[in-house]
Design a protein that fits this description.
Endonuclease Iii, domain 2; 2 domains; mainly alpha; disordered N terminus; 12 helices; 225 residues; Endonuclease III, domain 1; single chain
Length: 225
């Protein structure tokens, strides 16, 4: 794999150039693929260590059971919930995590996503991170895609693309990368722009920046010139 030359300038310029190149290549991604904010949050928890197609099967099971609402999910007996989640893998662990999240949502906001959205972001992020099974990536996915908050999600795809193109170190902490994006993306529609850029980075990783990269035709080839 050829390494792209690191663009000159500060983070805002570098990430702005990346966003422009990916935007031209892939266009709007329309993330997150979910019918409701709660469904999105369920998906963020289930997608841990799972292929998305298998998460979709588990979500379809929950929908068919009428359990894509916090109270109805909590009303399910644990064996029944585990059976519905089986396609997503680690179904016992994920059932426990979903129950913990729904209990927190009920205690925090009476199960209301709208009420949850009223909380200050920093406080809400800290509370999410205290929920069993919710790590930084899951918390930030919920904040960005479920609640429309301007927080950047740093997943394995993001880290792979950035390190290969000289924009991050392999060992750079999660929050260091996240904060660099959040400081660089300023102005209007920050959450929407972060949403699109993250989704486009994921698309880049799936098409080109794979474990075994396919560099030909990569939108970031311009950085090599």
């Amino acid at each position: 794999m050829s390494r792209a030359a690191r663009p000159s300038g500060d983070d805002a310029a570098k990430l702005g150039e990346m966003a422009a190149l990916l935007g031209r290549a892939f266009g709007p991604q329309g993330w997150w693929p979910a019918k409701t904010p709660f469904e999105m949050m369920v998906g963020a928890i289930l997608t841990q260590n799972a292929a998305w197609k298998n998460v979709e099967r588990a979500i379809a099971n929950l929908e068919a059971a009428g359990a894509l609402r916090p109270a109805r999910l909590l009303a399910l007996r644990r064996p029944r919930l585990e059976k519905l989640l089986r396609p997503s893998g680690y179904f016992r662990v994920k059932a426990a995590r979903l129950v913990s999240f729904c209990r927190w949502l009920d205690e925090r906001a009476g199960g209301s996503i709208a009420k949850l959205a009223e909380a200050p972001m920093d406080r809400l992020r800290a509370e999410l991170l205290s929920v069993h099974g919710v790590g930084p990536e899951t918390a930030d996915s919920i904040l960005l895609y479920g609640l429309g908050r301007p927080v950047f999600v740093v997943d394995a795809y993001t880290r792979r693309v950035l390190t290969r193109h000289g924009l991050a170190r392999d060992s750079e902490p999660y929050d260091s990368i996240r904060l660099r994006f959040e400081r660089a993306i300023r102005g209007r529609n920050r959450a929407r722009r972060m949403n699109e850029l993250h989704a486009q980075i994921v698309e880049l990783a799936k098409r080109h920046c794979r474990t075994r990269p396919r560099c030909e035709g990569c939108p970031l080839e311009e950085w090599n010139r």
